Amino acid sequence: MIVAAGGPERELADVERFNREGVYWIGVDRGTLYLLNRGIQPQAAFGDFDSISAEEWDYIQQKVENIHTFPAEKDETDLELALRWAATLKPQTIIILGATGGRLDHFFGTVSLLTNCQGLFQEIEIEVIDRLNCLAIYRPGRKNVYKDLDYKYFSFFPITNEVTGFTLEGFKYPLANHTVRLGSTLYTSNELREESGTFSFTDGILMVIRSSDN
């Protein structure tokens, strides 16, 4: 499932790389236009649509059947409303595009949502991707990762006060059973030494950012 938010279009990842048969697309506010303008038909759209013109709104209404509209003054962001609805469909993966490069309050609101809604998103792997970065939140366990030249560097940041049992295998700078404490920058800009590797930890919540060298 792909959710396209309405952040600055210049930061949008290459949408075509995700455009495969069977993908469920959701547009959020101006992100709906980003999809339509690339020939992608959203199955649903969410938002107050206060960032688009009357002509653009007419166009969206003509093209998208399942539109969820909300007032501009509300307790949740448009993206949060879309993600909560998407989670009820129980997808294995949700990829969020168009959520970076604009307002920092919106971006940190998204990260906060992914770290705190454990019941809603606990069984769903969620990634926030733009043209230079891929961000994901992980809970304890072991994760296999693979070399991707578009997102070469790995950086690891604890969301909780500490992450324990942190281990890296197959990386240029391997680690075994480290405790990663909040505020540390020790675990930034690592990269895979081989075609694949793993990271694992036993307790805490970890944010992993993969970045391009461009």
TrEMBL record:
* Pfam families from the UniProt entry: TPK_B1_binding, TPK_catalytic
Q: Which UniProt keywords apply?
A: ATP-binding, Kinase, Nucleotide-binding, Transferase
- Molecular function terms, GO-annotated: thiamine diphosphokinase activity
Which E.C. number(s) belong to this protein?
Answer: 2.7.6.2
Q: Which SMART domains match?
A: TPK_B1_binding
- Judged by the first EC level, this protein's enzyme class is transferase
For this protein, the record's CDD domains field holds: TPK
SUPFAM superfamilies given in the database record: Thiamin pyrophosphokinase, catalytic domain, Thiamin pyrophosphokinase, substrate-binding domain
Q: Which domain of life is it from?
A: Bacteria
Domain Thiamin pyrophosphokinase thiamin-binding: residue ranges: 141-207
Q: Which NCBIfam families match?
A: thi_PPkinase
Q: What is this protein called?
A: Thiamine diphosphokinase
